[in-house]
Amino acid sequence: MSDIKNKNDKQQDVKELNAEQLVKEADKRASDSSMWNTFKRRFRRSKTAIAGFILLIIMFSTAIIGPVIYGGFEFTIGDTEISWNGTHGHHYRAQNLDNRLAEQSWEHPLGTDRLGRDVLARVLWGGRVSLAVGFVAMGISGSIGIVMGASAGYFGGAVDAIIMRFTEIVMSFPLLFLLLTILAFFDGGIMLIMVVIGITGWTGVCRLVRAEFLSLRERDFTQAAQALGASDMRIIFKHILPNAMAPLIVSITLGIGGAILTETTLSFLGIGITPPNPSWGNVLNDGQSYLRDHHYLTTYPGIFIFLTILGYNFLGDGLRDSLDPRLKQ
Prior knowledge:
Layout: H1 2-31, H2 33-45, H3 47-71, E1 73-77, E2 80-84, H4 119-155, H5 157-172, H6 175-183, H7 190-200, H8 203-216, H9 220-227, H10 232-240, H11 245-268, H12 280-287, H13 296-323
Antiparallel strand pairs: 1-2
Subcellular location: Cell membrane
Family: Belongs to the binding-protein-dependent transport system permease family.
Pfam families: BPD_transp_1 (PF00528), OppC_N (PF12911)
């Protein structure tokens, strides 16, 4: 009897060692430096990814540094006031009705709008607003989608059914109509726009994360972690989620571009970012009545929007190719 007991104990020890080995191998795969080296090599070879990355660097640099160089700055440190008028000194809110709808010139490189405001100053500052909305809104969407999708995919059963039925209900509403309904009851502040776009755009991330979790929860390393007594939260966030990051990164990258486009659409319709705060959408709105005679009022904001969305799409496609383990190295 003692021999049988010792044999069973040894078998149990072997099973535990095997389980621990599986978990360690899974964690190593999720954080293996060779995987990131492979990603960097593929990324550098992807012309699409590099083009998107360069485009976004240019757009972000223009939005962050451009208003300072073009319009200057002013701030106070203690009793010392520091200011610089920039290359042109135009503030995006400054009006000059005597110079309304001015053509392009050195003084106003993209002309002025119906209130005499410098179009370039408004486009540069509007880039800050639109890019910030895209990032924050997708951050909210991604957080909600990850939590909902991970819960549905890992726990399954009734939890999965409830979450997916709720997701389908949200998806059944036309997104624009849902946004219009919510914003009709509130003023279009920047933070509100970020939150509204964020809480209505999580369904795609949720479905993606759920699909990844349904696959990964059946893998040996997940079952080994459960056998070792790891908590559900540890398994979800330490073992499964890191192994599902590749498609998630791609989805979030593409989603930022979608959030910027949504904000632009809402602002163009007059229910997004409200004047005098500029965004690319309401700058387009200001110029739509003068499209025939003053095309620059809409052409240049449209170019900025186009290049930004194109950059995110290129980068997302490049990341997909670089992170896809099924591609040849």
